[in-house]
Amino acid sequence: MIGNYIGSARSVLNAGEYRALYVAYGALPIQLAEPFSGLVPEDWAPHRVQYIEEVQRHAARFIVRVAEEQGCSAFCDSSPRNLLILPALLEAFPDALFVLTLRHYAGTIQSLLRIGTISLLPGNERSMDWVDPTAVAAGMLWSRHYEAAMQLPGERTIPFSYDHFSADPEPTLARFKDRLATAGFPIGELDEAVFETSHASAPGKPRPTVGSKHDRFQLSSIPSFDAPTWSAAIEADVQPVVALADALLSSVFPDDYVAPVGYSGSEALLGANAVARSPNRRAGAAKARGAVQAAPRPDLAAPKARRPRPERKPGPGTGRSSRGRPARGR
């Protein structure tokens, strides 16, 4: 969303999620890495390194050239994975301005699971090939990106609070534009009509948008988090993988990293989960269920003792021989 807003400026080429920079600097070196010695001939190894470097230079020069050809003085690449290759980008674009969208992990995890953007092709990233993505997988993806964001240069980074913007869009957008203007960005070229379109919708499933136009264009609040579907158990599952990044963001961006409206707080949710999982509560629930059950079924009851049958005494003159044939007495 915010990438399309930045890219709406006339002097900025909107490349969407260009991704070529991440492919060249992030994925390609992993794909062409030599995991074992001897698999690649020694004579070929320098050519492989040369190939990677040429691809990287091409990815950087290509987007700059296209921007210049279209009369733009800058380009906007809104791929989140650029955070994972920040050292390379800082070297390739030493004057770049970075805009960091901040969103609480709860809403981000829900969004990632809804639109299915966690699954990756094998080999694109180490330890991140999710076949059946879960909330924990989404939380790990969230954490990895925001932990990497700690490498951003503070003097060239502008934070944007997604949760603030969703709850109170007009003042949040005004503050953001002030920050852009201070950094020398041409805010007079920005087109707020981009907020009328949802940029995270599955096909055929439109999402609410902050911007709308009836008689005139206006900004209205929308939810950035779905409280009914975020359970205490989910919070307990994701906490181990999101806690560090959550604390870092709260410390570095205290005014822009906030919880979404409707989120009851991690402590309250973890407390509710602990109560729900406590042995006393489970035992009490089981006892309550047992109190309303009917009497035990016969097959579950203790077996009744059988009454011994009285021993029959043989009548006079009758009996059996050792061979089982009837015997006659005399």
Ends distance: 114 Å
Can you tell me the overall shape?
A: globular
Question: Total number of helical segments?
Answer: 11
**Whole-angstrom Rg:** 34 Å
Strand content: 5-15%
The helix-strand sequence is HEHHEHEHHEHHEEHHHEE
Largest β-sheet summary: 2 strands, parallel
Query: Strand order of the main beta sheet, please?
Result: 1-2
Number of domains: 2
SSE class = mainly alpha
- Low-pLDDT stretches are 120-129, 291-305, 313-330
Query: Fraction of residues in helices?
Result: 40-55%
Give the total of beta strands.
8
The average pLDDT is 83
Describe this structure in words.
It is a single chain. With 330 residues, this protein is mainly alpha-helical. It folds into two domains: 96 residues, no CATH class; 176 residues, no CATH class. Helices cover 42% and strands 8% of the residues. The protein contains eleven helices and eight strands. The strands form four sheets. A two-stranded parallel ribbon has the order 1-2. A two-stranded parallel sheet has the order 3-4. A two-stranded antiparallel ribbon has the order 5-6. A hairpin with a 5-residue loop joins strand 7 and strand 8. Helix 2 packs antiparallel against helix 3 and helix 9 runs antiparallel to helix 10. The protein is globular and about 70 Å long. The N and C termini lie far apart (114 Å). The relative contact order is 0.11. The C terminus is likely disordered.
